[in-house]
Amino acid sequence: MAETDSDYLKEQALGVHEETVTVTHEGEHRDRVADGDGDVYQSGLGPEREKKIIRRIDVRLLPILGLMYSISLADRTNMGLAMVAGMSEDLGLAEGSRYTILVMIFFVAYIVFEIPSNLVLPKAGAANWLAFLGASFGAVLIGMGFVKNWGMMALCRALLGITEAGFLPGCTYLITCWYRRYEVGKRLSLFWILSCLTSGFASIFAYVLSLLHGRAGLNGWSWIFIIEGIITMAVCVGGWFIIIDFPTKADRFLTAEEKRFVIERINADRGDAEEDPINVAVILHHLKDWKLYFWAFNLMASTLPGYAYSYFLPIILRDGMGFSATDSQLLSAPPYVLAAIVAFTSGWLGDKYRIRGPIIAVHQLLTAAGMLITAFAKPNGARYFGAFLGIGFLQYCVPGVLTYQANNITRRSKRSVATATCMMGGGLGGIIAGVAFKSSESPKYTTGVFTTLGISLTSVAMITIMDLYFLKVNRAAKAGKRLNEGLANWYYTC
């Protein structure tokens, strides 16, 4: 292997793309076979067969990844539902900041293990690694159902953060490696829709499981963790047989001709279908790109209100609006149906019109408005409408930011690092949610609401700055004055 980032990238380029790629270091010239949008490439298979191949990939890849991640998300965010089902009283979580610590410790572990997990994924194989992670956090969840004190629950939450750290970035990384830039938006939205619907269903399912109160001497909240953990393990082990690996390793799924079609169309779009080697020097090189930190902040601004609603909406419904514990769990579900519809619609529009930043900004503003209404409106109907508005427009933001980033990244090594750093921002949003939404301020959570508002407005400003930068450098690239990401005829997506 070459000693430096530049050397080995050049070797990889010359070895894999000898006829179409000349130099690979960022800022230097790499010839491509397309016009920057991937529209020029012709495979010779014919449009109908090409569509059938893409549909086969969709059916094989998206449902299982969406199902596995949606279950992991439900596992991660069922703390609020367990709280209203008796966990707070059993573990003494009302004392001091115990509940806040339980929320935070998950995200600390989650952030620390993001990049290491994403680097293991290509080496271990997508199916092997994602199934292993899923089975692991399912086992941890089962253990949480038998916890008898809050200290052991904190340990379980840390283990849950470690095992879940690589799951969403792994799924996102795998999906973006299979599709062209303007096919990714609606597919990440479809992947995310399952998580929206499952988040809504999770509250109803949690209520049903809480009815097992007293069985085997366990409270209802214990059964929430145990049954969901068993389901998680079963689904993720089953996923091992279904998940397809990266395009260059899909020999059991595609014929040689079909595999060549998939690889060449991705290379025509952005030139990174094949994996390039990665080492510490390359990771540090990619981490110098300021855009990675803007996207990480954007995702933090998107996950912060999401975790806030997941952890605290049942409590707001119960303590702030006066609903029973049962009604609080059931009323947490309907807003996620609207969220699924909005997420797909916005993802489809983003792909159709090839636009990312402005759509995310509008969604973040509407989410912040919804949270203000939920917290400070007087009538219960208005507050519940605020939850619909906030959750309904929030859920697109995560796949939107991930697509925004994926559309403006080239090289598989950089895609891996960028996805992980972006997810670290998402985990930081969970930490901020746990700290800012103080139990002492229930049910209005004034500090949390205004923290969310400030971060959302900052995120909108950063999206504006980045899009203005993209417009400027795209004009220069079209005038032949520069190369974006070292690629000829390749333009950033605003």
TrEMBL record:
Keywords: Membrane, Transmembrane, Transmembrane helix, Transport. GO terms for molecular function: transmembrane transporter activity. InterPro entries: MFS, MFS_dom, MFS_trans_sf. It is found in: Membrane. One of its GO terms (cellular component) is membrane. Residues 24-44 are annotated as: Disordered. The keyword Transmembrane applies. The chain crosses the membrane at residues 59-76, 96-113, 125-146, 158-178, 190-209, 221-243, 292-313, 333-350, 357-377, 383-404, 416-437, 449-471. PANTHER family: MAJOR FACILITATOR SUPERFAMILY (MFS) PROFILE DOMAIN-CONTAINING PROTEIN (PTHR43791:SF3), PERMEASE-RELATED (PTHR43791). This is Major facilitator superfamily (MFS) profile domain-containing protein.
